[in-house]
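Working notes for the structural subgroup meeting. M.R. asked for a predicted model of this chain before we commit to crystallization trials. I am recording the input and output together here so anyone reviewing the notebook later can reproduce the run.

Input as submitted:
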Amino acid sequence: MFNVKTVGNPVFDDHAVAFSEEGDFFDYVEEREANAEWIDPCPIKEVKFVPMENMPILAVLESAKLGVSPEAYVDTLNNAKLIVETPDGRKMLMRVNALNQAKQRLMIDGTVFNRFTSEQTAMVLNECCSVNSNRVVMRYADEKASAFLPPRATRSFLLLRSSIRQRSLYARCFSSLRSWPAFMPMPFRLPSGRSPAPRGRQERS
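Returned structure, recorded in token form:
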């Protein structure tokens, strides 16, 4: 087993890991990606956001319906407070990171959401989705939807992931990285030396 320092349960939004050796980082990323799922691209207009009912007492029952642990359900209830539903009817708890990416993707990011209820947030997101012609790729890991990205961005990430065993490539990309929230797709530099598009610029897919 590789040597890592973990903070919190992996299903929690604030879970993080730290590495003492570069090789430990490579092994950890390889294991995580083997247990993560990238969901096929789908039209954003067919994605739905469902507000969670603020009743922790029902966590055991509701988590069983979603096939997740009560801990993951309660953590989402305390953070993103939303469930995302794919066009084929699959429902997933949503991490705060994925929610923030969804807001950016829909170009509605702002502090006003801090004053919204989960019902209001879901309503705004669904209205914006209904008029959006782009597509999205979601990542499912540790019982939650952990990414909400344009296909163009994920193609680059998946290309890098497929080369995970090529440690020389990772040494160039992550030589200074020792700690990163476990649920987040990691920042990288493409092998050609080109960096991903700036975070604030919206990419068409």
